[in-house]
Write a structure and sequence with these properties.
Elements (H helix, E strand, L loop, with lengths): L1 H24 L18 E7 L1 H4 L3 H11 L4 E7 L5 H7 L11 H5 L4 E5 L2 H5 L4 H17 L3 E4 L7 H5 L4 H15 L6 H14 L7 E2 L16 E3 L2 E2 L1 H21 L1
Helix pairs in contact: 3-11, 4-7, 7-10
Length: about 260
C-alpha cells in the first residue's frame, strides 16, 4: 500500500512538472489570419497592445490627452493583459472580442500605428530571449499583414535582478533551471532580449517596415531611476509621465516625416 502511495505521488509530481514547464516554455504556433474588411477610420489612429504596462495609469487616455495638448488630434485605444508574456499577447490578437483580454478589435480598427509594449514578464519568468523574440516577431508580422505599422519598444528597462530576489523557492528553482538549460547557467540580461529581437528584425529585413523606439531615453538604469518605478516590474505615476512624453515626441516626429 505504501509503495503504491509513493508511486502515485511520484507520477502526480511528474505530471504536474510536465504541465508546468509545458505551459511556461512552449512556443505558440502561427494562428490563421482572419478576414478583416473594415476600413481605416479618418484621422490619426493609434493602438497599444501589451501587458500591464499598457493598462496601468490609463496609458491610452494619457497619450491622447498629451497629443491634444501638442495640437495633434488622435484616437488612442489600448488592450493590455496584466501578467502576460509575449506568447499570450500574440494569441490575444486572434481571440474573439467576447473573450477576456482579446485585442482583435485593435486589428479591426486598422490604426496607423500599433505600439507594442511587452517582454517584462518574459524576462521576469526567465523564459529566454528566443521565446521573447519568436513571439514578438509573430506580433510584428501579424500587424504588418493587416497594414498596421508596428511601433516596437524592445524590452523596457526594469528591475530584473531585484524581482528575481523576491521569487519563491519554486519560481527561483525554475528560473535557475531554465538559465542552466538555455544559457549554460549564466543569467539572462535585458540586453540579451533586446539584441536577440533586433538581430531577428534585421535578419528578416523588417527594420525599414517598422518603427523602433529606445526605452533608454526614458530609463536606462533601474537602480538610478527608482523614482520612476512603483516596484521592480512597473512604472509609477512619474514614470508614466516621462514615458508618455517620450511616446508623444516620437509620434509627432513620425507624423512630420510622413
Amino acid at each position: 500500500m505504501k509503495k503504491k502511495i509513493i508511486v502515485t505521488a511520484v507520477l502526480l509530481a511528474g505530471i504536474f512538472c510536465t504541465v508546468y514547464f509545458w505551459n511556461k516554455y512552449s512556443y505558440a504556433g502561427p494562428e490563421k489570419y482572419f478576414v478583416s474588411q473594415t476600413k481605416p477610420q479618418d484621422g490619426l489612429q493609434i493602438g497599444i497592445i501589451g501587458d500591464s504596462w499598457v493598462v496601468r495609469q490609463n496609458l491610452d487616455s494619457l497619450l491622447e490627452a498629451k497629443l491634444q495638448e501638442k495640437g495633434v488630434h488622435a484616437e488612442v485605444y489600448a488592450s493590455g493583459n496584466p501578467g502576460a508574456k509575449t506568447k499570450l499577447i500574440y494569441e490575444n490578437l486572434f481571440k474573439e472580442k467576447k473573450e477576456s483580454f482579446s485585442s482583435k478589435e485593435i486589428i479591426e480598427k486598422k490604426p496607423d500605428y500599433c505600439i507594442v509594449i511587452a517582454g517584462v514578464n518574459d524576462a521576469a519568468t526567465h523564459v529566454g530571449p528566443d521565446f521573447y523574440t519568436h513571439h514578438m516577431m509573430m506580433i510584428i508580422n501579424t500587424l504588418l499583414h493587416y497594414g498596421i505599422k508596428p511601433v516596437i519598444i524592445p524590452l523596457p528597462e526594469f528591475g530584473l535582478e531585484e524581482d528575481s530576489e523576491k521569487k519563491n523557492i519554486l519560481s527561483s528553482l525554475s528560473n535557475k533551471g531554465s538559465e542552466l538549460v538555455l544559457n549554460g547557467g549564466k543569467k539572462f540580461e535585458i540586453k540579451d532580449y533586446r539584441n536577440s529581437l533586433l538581430n531577428e528584425i534585421k535578419k528578416q529585413k523588417l527594420d525599414q517596415k517598422i518603427i523602433l523606439l529606445n526605452f533608454d531615453e526614458v530609463s536606462s538604469d533601474f537602480e538610478k531611476d527608482r523614482d520612476l518605478y512603483a516596484d521592480p516590474l512597473h512604472l509609477n505615476l512619474n514614470g508614466y509621465q516621462k514615458f508618455s512624453d517620450f511616446l508623444v515626441k516620437n509620434i509627432i516626429n513620425l507624423q512630420r516625416s510622413r
